[in-house]
Amino acid sequence: MTGVPASAAGGSPSAKGAAGAPGASGAPGGAKPARGGKLGAAAVNQASLWNIANILTMIRLVLVPGFVALMLADGGYDPAMRAWAWAAFAVAMITDIFDGHLARTYNLVTDFGKIADPIADKAIMGAALICLSYLGDLPWWVTGVILGRELGITLLRFLVIRYGVIPASRGGKMKTLAQGTAVGMYVLALTGPLATLRFWVMAVAVVLTVVTGLDYVRQAIVLRRRGIAERQAAAEEAER
C-alpha cells in the first residue's frame, strides 16, 4: 500500500495490487509507504471539511451580519429592507434544515460542523430576536425566554454528555418550526389581521419553548441518574 487512498493518489485497484506485489519494491509482502503519504492523507481529510453541509452552515454564518444590516437599515422601518431581511432569514432557516439532513444522509459529519452548526442556528435566531426587541416590535422578555432556553439547553447537553446524548424530540422540532415562523412574521412589516396572527403564533412558540425546555431538563435528570446507577453497578461488579 502507498499510505494514501487509491482515489487520492490517482491510482486504481489494479495498480494498487501491483504495487503491493512481491518484488515491486524489493521487499516481500508489499512496498514501503510512498513519501508524502501522510501529507496526502491529511490533504484528503482537510478537503472533507469543504462539503456541502459545511458550506451551507458557513452561508448561515455569513448571512447573520447581512441580516442585521438589513433589519436596522433606515431606522428599521423600511418595508423593502425588512422584506430583504426576511429573505435572508428564510434562507438561513432553509439551510438549517438541509445541512443537518445532508450531513447525516451522506456521512458528511465533521468536527467543524458539530461546532459551527449550533452556533449558526443560534446566531441567526438570536440576531433576529435582539433586533426585533431593539426596534420595539417584540418585548424583551420574549427574547430573554427564547434565548435563555436555547443557551441553557445547549449547556445542559454538554453537562450530561458523559452519561449520554439527549435526542431531539418531536416537540423540539415543533418548537423550532414555530419560532422560525413567528420570528419571520415579525421580521416582515405586517399590519392588520396578519399582525394579530403573528402575535398568536409567537405565543405558541413561547409556550413550546418553555414546555420543551422543561422536558429536556427532565430527560437530562433521568439520563444522569441512569448513568450514575450503571457506573455504580459496574464498579460493584468489578470488585467481586
Automatic annotation (TrEMBL):
<dbReference type="InterPro" id="IPR004570">
    <property type="entry name" value="Phosphatidylglycerol_P_synth"/>
</dbReference>
<keyword id="KW-1003">Cell membrane</keyword>
<dbReference type="GO" id="GO:0046474">
    <property type="term" value="P:glycerophospholipid biosynthetic process"/>
</dbReference>
<feature type="transmembrane region" description="Helical">
    <location>
        <begin position="115"/>
        <end position="135"/>
    </location>
</feature>
<dbReference type="GO" id="GO:0005886">
    <property type="term" value="C:plasma membrane"/>
</dbReference>
<dbReference type="InterPro" id="IPR048254">
    <property type="entry name" value="CDP_ALCOHOL_P_TRANSF_CS"/>
</dbReference>
<keyword id="KW-0472">Membrane</keyword>
<keyword id="KW-1133">Transmembrane helix</keyword>
<keyword id="KW-1208">Phospholipid metabolism</keyword>
<dbReference type="InterPro" id="IPR000462">
    <property type="entry name" value="CDP-OH_P_trans"/>
</dbReference>
<feature type="transmembrane region" description="Helical">
    <location>
        <begin position="200"/>
        <end position="217"/>
    </location>
</feature>
<dbReference type="Pfam" id="PF01066">
    <property type="entry name" value="CDP-OH_P_transf"/>
</dbReference>
<dbReference type="GO" id="GO:0008444">
    <property type="term" value="F:CDP-diacylglycerol-glycerol-3-phosphate 3-phosphatidyltransferase activity"/>
</dbReference>
<dbReference type="InterPro" id="IPR043130">
    <property type="entry name" value="CDP-OH_PTrfase_TM_dom"/>
</dbReference>
<comment type="similarity">
    <text>Belongs to the CDP-alcohol phosphatidyltransferase class-I family.</text>
</comment>
<comment type="function">
    <text>Probably catalyzes the synthesis of phosphatidylglycerophosphate by transferring a phosphatidyl group from CDP-diacylglycerol to glycerol 3-phosphate.</text>
</comment>
<keyword id="KW-0443">Lipid metabolism</keyword>
<feature type="region of interest" description="Disordered">
    <location>
        <begin position="1"/>
        <end position="31"/>
    </location>
</feature>
<keyword id="KW-0808">Transferase</keyword>
<keyword id="KW-0444">Lipid biosynthesis</keyword>
<keyword id="KW-0812">Transmembrane</keyword>
<feature type="transmembrane region" description="Helical">
    <location>
        <begin position="83"/>
        <end position="103"/>
    </location>
</feature>
<keyword id="KW-0594">Phospholipid biosynthesis</keyword>
<feature type="transmembrane region" description="Helical">
    <location>
        <begin position="58"/>
        <end position="77"/>
    </location>
</feature>
<comment type="pathway">
    <text>Lipid metabolism; phospholipid metabolism.</text>
</comment>
<protein>
    <recommendedName>
        <fullName>CDP-diacylglycerol--glycerol-3-phosphate 3-phosphatidyltransferase</fullName>
        <ecNumber>2.7.8.5</ecNumber>
    </recommendedName>
</protein>
<dbReference type="InterPro" id="IPR050324">
    <property type="entry name" value="CDP-alcohol_PTase-I"/>
</dbReference>
